[in-house]
Amino acid sequence: MYATHRRYEGIDQSRIEELTRKVNESLIPRLSKLPGFTGYFLMEAGEGVVRSTSLFETSDQAKDSTRVAAEWMQEEKLETLVPNAPKVTVRKVIALETKVPVLV
Predict the structure, then answer these.
(1) Which parts of the chain fold into alpha helices (H)?
(2) Tell me: the pLDDT tens digits for 21-44?
(3) I need a labelling partner for 50 at 20 to 30 A (CA). Which of 13, 80, 90, 95 fits?
(4) pLDDT tens digits, one per residue of 81-96
């Protein structure tokens, strides 16, 4: 399993709810249709930072999720809400525990 971590900086704190709604309504459904998808998390990190983690079966699938997320941001016209490109890393998951069934 592989995780794609994205760190978004410069987010207007007063618009976090708007971002959360958009992610739930249209990004998560799009990502969940990708091959190998096993999970998505969006976390508020404070001070204008939001982080997301996507989980996929392979490294290539995890990398492809970044392309899909970038396309979604352009389609949704989120430049003012998310003014900076994310810092992205893809890493192999080496330990995992969850009460929700996850394919490993």
Answers:
(1) 16-22, 28-32, 59-75
(2) 999 999 999 999 999 999 999 999
(3) 95
(4) 888 889 999 999 999 8
